Amino acid sequence: LIERKNRKDNSSFLGCSKYPKCRYSESVE
After folding, report:
1. With contact defined as beta carbons under 8 Å apart, do 6 and 13 qualify?
2. What tens-digit pLDDT sequence spans the chain (29 residues)?
3. 19 with 6: CB under 8 angstroms?
4. Which residues does UniProt call coiled coil (predicted)?
C-alpha cells in the first residue's frame, strides 16, 4: 500500500495526510 511506501520514504509522508491509515502506521512503527 502507499502508506507502507511512505513509511520507507519520510519525504513521501508529506502526502500521508491524505491517508489516515498512514498516520496510524507511523504510530505503530
Report:
1. yes
2. 555 555 555 555 555 566 666 655 555 54
3. yes
4. none
C-alpha cell at 19: 491517508
Other Cβ atoms closer than 10 A to 28 = 6
Beta-strand (E) ranges in 1-29? Answer: none
Q: How far is CA 7 from CA 17, 18, in A?
A: 13, 14
Q: Sketch the domain layout of the chain as residue ranges.
A: 1-29
Q: What is the pTM of this model?
A: 0.15
Chain CA centroid to CA 6, Å: 4
Count of H-run helices and E-run strands, the chain? 2, 0
